[in-house]
C-alpha cells in the first residue's frame, strides 16, 4: 500500500482510537491501532474489513496474545498489518511471536519492535519481520533513559542511521520527532516512515477530554508503560503530561505534508527519494538556533 505521508500516529491509547483509525484509513494515511483494548481486537479487524478498510492492529508477547492469533486464524481473519509492540523488541519472545504469526496468518505484513541496534534489526528481519521499529526511550512521555541508563534518547537520529544501514527492509523511526523538520531528517537517514506521539497529542480527534487550566486548553498524553496505562506501579517507564490543545488533526497533517514537500524541494527533487541523497552538516550545541516559532 502507499500512503499520503511517511508518518503514522503512535499506537498509544491517548493518540489513536477506532474513530481516528477509520478516518486515517479512509483518507490515505497509515494507522496502527494500539493493543490496550485487548479483547476487542478481533472484532476491530472485522469492523474495519466490513467497511472495506485495511486492518492494522498491535499485539504483545504474553500467552493471551497467542490466543488472539489462534482466534484470528480460526476465523480466517487476516489483518493487513500486525505490529508486535513491546519495550525491548530485541528479545526471543518477539522472535517466537514473529514466527508464530508467519506460520498461522499468511499474507500479513509484520512490523516488530522496538529495537535500538543494527543487531536487533537483523535478528527481527531474519525471524520474519517485514519492517522494524527503531527507538528505545526517545519518546516525550518516556523515562526509560533516566530509569535504566539505556536507550536511543538523545541520539535517536544516529540510531536510525545505524539501524537503516543494517536493514534490508523498511525502518520505522519511532519517537523523538519534535518538529516537522525531524521527519525529513529521519527519512534522510533511512527511515521509510516515522511514528509520532506527542506532535499528534492534544487534537480534537485524539482520545481524551480537553482540560482547561488558567484559561489555557490542554489534553492528556501518557506513556504506554506509565502507571496510568498499566493501572499499577510496576515496570513503569512512562509518564503523564498535559500538552496544549491543537485543534483539528487534519490541519497538523496538512502542515506536515506541506513542510515535507518543501524539504523535498530544498533537496532539489520531486520525491522522498531526493531526501536520501542530500549532504548534511552537524551543528554542535544547537537544537533550535534560537529560531523557535
Ligand atoms: N519505545 C520505547 O522506548 C518503549 C515503549 N514502551 C511501550 O510500552 C508498552 C508496554 O511495553 P512492555 O512493558 O514491554 O509490554 P508488556 O507489559 O506486554 O511486557 C512485555 C514483556 O516484557 C516484560 N517486561 C516489561 N517490562 C519489563 C522490565 N522493565 N524488565 C523486564 N521485563 C519487562 C514483561 O514481563 P511481565 O510478564 O513480568 O510483565 C513481558 O514479558 C508498549 O506499547 C511499548 O511500546 C515501553 C517502554 C519503552
Ligand atoms: N519509554 C517509553 N516509551 C514510550 C512509552 N509510551 C510510548 N512510548 C514510545 O514513545 C513513542 C512516541 O514518542 P513521541 O516522542 O513522538 O511522543 C511511541 O511511539 C512509543 O514508541 C512509555 O511509557 N515509555
Automatic annotation (TrEMBL):
- Per the similarity annotation, which family is this? Belongs to the IMPDH/GMPR family. GuaC type 2 subfamily.
Q: Which enzyme type, at the first EC level?
A: oxidoreductase
- Which HAMAP family does this one have? GMP_reduct_type2 (MF_01511)
Q: What is its EC number?
A: 1.7.1.7
Determine the domain of life of the protein's source.
Bacteria
What's the stated role of this polypeptide? Answer: Catalyzes the irreversible NADPH-dependent deamination of GMP to IMP. It functions in the conversion of nucleobase, nucleoside and nucleotide derivatives of G to A nucleotides, and in maintaining the intracellular balance of A and G nucleotides.
Q: Does the keyword Cytoplasm apply?
A: no
Question: Which GO annotations describe the biological process of this protein?
Answer: purine nucleotide metabolic process
Where does the IMP dehydrogenase/GMP reductase domain lie? 2-278
Catalyzes what? IMP + NH4(+) + NADP(+) = GMP + NADPH + 2 H(+)
Q: Which residues form the active site?
A: 142
Q: Which UniProt keywords apply?
A: NADP, Oxidoreductase
InterPro entries xref list: Aldolase_TIM, GMP_reductase, GuaC_type_2, IMP_DH/GMP_Rdtase_CS, IMP_DH_GMPRt
Instruction: State one molecular function term (GO).
Output: oxidoreductase activity, acting on the CH-OH group of donors, NAD or NADP as acceptor
A family per Pfam:
IMPDH
Its name, as the record gives it, is: GMP reductase
Q: Which SMART domains match?
A: IMPDH (SM01240)
Q: Which residues bind NADP(+)?
A: 171-194
Which GO cellular component terms are attached? cytosol; GMP reductase complex
Amino acid at each position: 500500500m502507499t500512503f499520503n505521508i511517511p508518518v503514522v500516529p503512535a499506537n498509544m491509547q491517548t493518540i489513536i482510537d477506532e474513530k481516528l483509525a477509520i478516518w486515517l484509513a479512509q483518507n490515505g494515511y497509515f494507522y496502527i491501532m494500539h493493543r490496550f483494548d485487548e479483547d476487542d481486537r478481533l472484532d476491530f479487524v472485522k469492523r474495519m474489513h466490513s467497511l472495506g478498510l485495511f486492518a492494522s492492529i498491535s499485539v504483545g508477547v504474553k500467552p493471551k496474545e497467542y490466543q488472539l492469533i489462534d482466534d484470528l486464524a480460526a476465523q480466517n481473519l487476516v489483518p493487513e498489518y500486525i505490529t508486535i509492540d513491546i519495550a525491548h523488541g530485541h528479545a526471543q519472545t518477539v522472535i517466537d511471536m514473529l514466527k508464530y504469526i508467519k506460520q498461522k496468518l499468511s499474507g500479513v505484513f509484520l512490523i516488530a519492535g522496538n529495537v535500538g541496534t543494527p543487531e536487533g534489526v537483523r535478528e527481527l528481519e531474519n525471524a520474519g519481520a517485514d519492517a522494524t521499529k527503531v527507538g528505545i526511550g526517545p519518546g516525550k512521555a518516556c523515562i526509560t533513559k533516566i530509569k535504566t541508563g539505556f536507550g536511543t534518547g538523545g541520539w535517536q537520529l544516529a540510531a536510525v542511521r545505524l539501524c537503516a544501514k543494517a536493514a534490508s527492509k523498511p525502518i520505522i523511526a519511532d519517537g523523538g520527532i519534535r518538529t516537522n523538520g525531524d521527519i525529513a531528517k529521519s527519512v534522510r537517514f533511512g527511515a521509510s516512515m516515522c511514528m509520532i506521539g506527542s506532535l499528534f497529542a492534544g487534537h480534537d480527534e485524539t482520545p481524551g477530554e480537553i482540560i482547561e487550566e488558567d484559561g489555557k486548553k490542554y489534553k492528556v498524553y501518557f506513556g504506554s508503560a506509565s502507571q496510568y496505562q498499566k493501572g499499577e506501579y510496576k515496570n513503569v517507564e512512562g509518564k503523564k503530561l498535559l500538552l496544549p490543545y491543537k485543534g483539528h488533526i487534519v490541519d497538523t497533517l496538512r502542515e506536515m505534508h506541506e513542510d515535507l514537500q518543501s524539504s523535498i524541494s530544498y533537496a532539489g527533487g520531486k520525491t522522498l527519494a531526493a531526501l536520501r541523497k542530500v549532504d548534511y552538516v552537524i551543528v554542535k550545541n544547537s537544537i533550535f538556533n534560537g529560531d523557535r516559532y
